[in-house]
Amino acid sequence: MSPGATSDMAPGRWSALVWLALAVFLAMSPWFSAAAILPHLRALWMLTDGAAAWLTLAVQLGFVAGAVLSAALNLADRATPQRLILAGALLAGVANLGLLVADGPIFAMLLRGLTGAALALVYPPALKAMSAWFRTGRGVALGVMVGALTLGSALPHLVNGLGGANWRAVIVITSLLAAVGGLIAWHVRPGPYQAPAAAFQPARAWQLLTGGRMGRVTLGYLGHMWELYALWAWYAAFFSQMWSAHHLPDPARGAAFATFAVIGIGAIGCYVGGVLGDRWGRARLTVLALGLSGSCALILAGLVGAGAGLPLLLAVSLVWGFWIIADSAQFSTLASELVDPAYVGTALTAQLALGFSLTAASIAVVPVLMRAWGWPGAFVVLALGPLVGAIAMRPLIRTGSKWGVGQATPPGGAQEPGLGQVITRKNSGG
């Protein structure tokens, strides 16, 4: 253990991690509630493929709008994260419940957009709140947080699989879970490393993400996001089609359970990614995860084209689901370590806003690609994202030696951990 490391281990940090992770897991559950019940909504409202896609896209676009506004106002650095999480979770739950009275896709899209905007007050502040509890081992801590997000995103598919045709139960349960998550976060006290409230600087977000090493981190994160939510949003439709092609009964139910497994296994990937990021270095871990997830996309494309059986398709999909999210928290951790501490919340929110803007494009393009070239063509295009991301991140591995500790000064003037310290660590504790 390096000198002074014990002073970086705040008492109660593991308890805070457990409660905040549980809060995120519950609060983010409305995110994919509409995607989980999409077959029911298609039948109810006679939705076209385009309208069905917009129901999913509306959440992404709403999140982007909420995150952009939050970043411009520096909300995550000017307000208590716990208050933002509570407000966002309650608003998301109410907007999600609105689907019960929606009379058509237009109103439903507006509600889904509002749900996404509300969740922009949950996820970035939760990452900042956890950063205030951890200095050493932050990669693992944020990995657990993103793992909670992953499980929360998978939860509606499990509820749908268990609930069968009762799609209203999915909406009610996920809305209630969001409210409970917000209340849990409200009772978690602030961490000891929380920076004082920042000054209002609307242009700060863009400056934080585009300078020097953070520019490469941002590009790597965008490559990661290009494939992530496209897989999460469309996997149920893909596996349902594969299920039907094998003439098996109840494809919607089978796809619901498969999708829960493929998304949910990413929670383990987040933890493993955090451990490896703290031990090996964050850039090295991100390049590994991007390479493996992109390879899985290409392998799955080949298997579908060759008419492979469901067990093999699901096995490769599970590996993809594991590695596609394993690097996500490490991009957030890099942002929290490389930028001015007073604007960590703004940087995280802006990073997410850019990433989710790109997910809207990738989600929209998947059905177009699928109609033109089938699922193999769609998977090949998704693999381009991690390729670009790995190319962007690879030079950061070579910037510092494994044991080196460099120093640099970020735009905000605060001391930034050197890349040798951030990218690779001597201690397994980060």
UniProtKB/TrEMBL annotation:
Its main location: membrane. The keyword Ligase does not apply. Residues 16-401 form the Major facilitator superfamily (MFS) profile domain. It comes from the Bacteria. InterPro entries: MFS, MFS_dom, MFS_Efflux_Transporters, MFS_trans_sf. It is a multi-pass membrane protein. Pfam families: MFS_1. Gene3D superfamilies: MFS general substrate transporter like domains. It is found in: Cell membrane. Keywords: Cell membrane, Membrane, Transmembrane, Transmembrane helix. The chain crosses the membrane at residues 51-72, 84-101, 107-127, 139-159, 165-186, 217-235, 255-273, 285-306, 343-366, 372-393. The keyword Membrane applies. This is MFS transporter. It comes from Deinococcus oregonensis.
